[in-house]
Amino acid sequence: MLLFLFSCAAPYKNLQRESAATTSALRFKPEFGRVLYRCVVDGRIVFRKFHLSGLLFFKDMHDGSTRVVFQNEMGFTFFDFEWDQKDRFKVNQIIPQLNKQALIETLEKDMSLLLMKNLNTASETVWKQDNEVFHRFNLEKGIAYYITRQDQLVRIENAGKSKVTTITLSEREQHSELPSTIVFDHHKANFTIRLNKIDDAED
């Protein structure tokens, strides 16, 4: 008998539980050496708009750590984040304008969701709606859904009492590669991050 997910917010109330074992969403965990994106950040705080653009680097280091660095075209660093071998997060560098705890936590969660870090893998359950499969993971705060269609990871959604963030992903040739375009849409924080991969930047 199909179970319905009554405990989640309205966008997920019609999900139907899959009882049969299916392939885990962890097959989409990115594997990379170095990947470079053009990055555009747009948002609004009260009545003020803000805009940042530059280059965002994802790099796996030789010691097993992962770095995410956002710089402008002249090499000035907006932020430099790091996850060690055990996925423990730290801020190596950040400009004063971005050095706000709530913003750092939001950016950390964005990148952690994309890179599939610190997921409670034992909590994974699978749900369906129409032609989409929802892989649900419990987070320390909220829930993450990795949503597939025709064996492609198309979205990642972070939800609490309502939908908080949607990460939209373009198709990829291999499950474990980072997609060519990524859009982070923060429904409550009122800002977006758009990434477009720069070719020949991965090694």
* Range of helix content: under 10%
**N- to C-terminal distance:** 48 Å
Largest sheet: number of strands, sense, barrel closure: 13 strands, antiparallel
Order of helices and strands: EEEEEEHEEEEEEE
Q: Radius of gyration, rounded? A: 17 Å
Which runs of at least 5 residues are low in confidence (pLDDT < 50)? 1-8
Structural class from helices and strands? mainly beta
Number of E strands: 13
What is the arithmetic mean of pLDDT? 89
**How many helices does DSSP assign?**
1
Strand order of the largest sheet: 1-7-8-9-10-11-12-13-2-3-4-5-6
Please indicate the percent range of residues in DSSP E strands (runs of 2 or more).
over 45%
Using the alpha-carbon principal axes, give the shape: globular
Word description of this protein:
The chain is mainly beta. It has one helix and 13 strands; from the N terminus they run E-E-E-E-E-E-H-E-E-E-E-E-E-E. Strands 1-7-8-9-10-11-12-13-2-3-4-5-6 form a 13-stranded antiparallel sheet, with helices on one face. The radius of gyration is 17 Å and the shape is globular. The relative contact order is 0.19.
Describe the structure using short key phrases.
13-stranded antiparallel beta sheet; 1 helix; 203 residues; mainly beta; globular
How would the blueprint of this fold be written?
Layout: E1 16-17, E2 34-45, E3 48-60, E4 66-71, E5 77-83, E6 89-94, H1 101-115, E7 125-129, E8 132-138, E9 143-149, E10 152-159, E11 163-169, E12 181-186, E13 191-197
Antiparallel strand pairs: 1-7, 2-3, 2-13, 3-4, 4-5, 5-6, 7-8, 8-9, 9-10, 10-11, 11-12, 12-13
